């Protein structure tokens, strides 16, 4: 059975491997992310027998709304090894991540998922319609992929 915890600096090699397995990003990007954005205390892992099977990373920042600074965090790098999917690992990671974010005083959580339905299952909802606007002979609205048909 998997256990859920915050990450440590010693987890970086496994987290890097997980990231590349799930996203296929370049070594250069991963080196940048883990040197410039990684925060062990804001990263959650699901571990079983010493192997990290799932992870979430948090990137804190100040969101300015009407000249007020709001503590915010972006949830990124949400990943589960393909062989371990369907076991509730992401649900456990998201639950712990949300609790820690709340305890640390983050008032806003942002994410930009590939598929909104993944997060909808866990009680997250899109707060906007993603779209691309182009200007050529007027403004043309091209809806971006948002598969939340149930809202």
Sequence-ordered SSE layout with sheet pairings:
Elements: E1 3-6, H1 12-23, H2 27-37, E2 43-48, E3 51-65, E4 68-80, H3 89-103, E5 108-110, H4 116-120, E6 131-135, E7 139-143
Parallel strand pairs: 4-5
Antiparallel strand pairs: 1-2, 2-3, 3-4, 6-7
Short structural summary:
This protein has helices at 12-23, 27-37, 89-103, 116-120, and strands at 3-6, 43-48, 51-65, 68-80, 108-110, 131-135, 139-143. The chain is an alpha+beta fold and 151 residues long. The strands form two sheets. Strands 1-2-3-4-5 form a five-stranded mixed β-sheet. Strands 6-7 form a two-stranded antiparallel ribbon.
Structure description:
With 151 residues, the protein is of the alpha+beta class. Helix content is 28%, strand content 34%. It contains 4 helices and 7 strands. The chain has helices at 12-23, 27-37, 89-103, 116-120, and strands at residues 3-6, 43-48, 51-65, 68-80, 108-110, 131-135, 139-143. Strands 1-2-3-4-5 form a 5-stranded mixed β-sheet. A hairpin with a 3-residue loop joins strand 6 (131-135) and strand 7 (139-143).
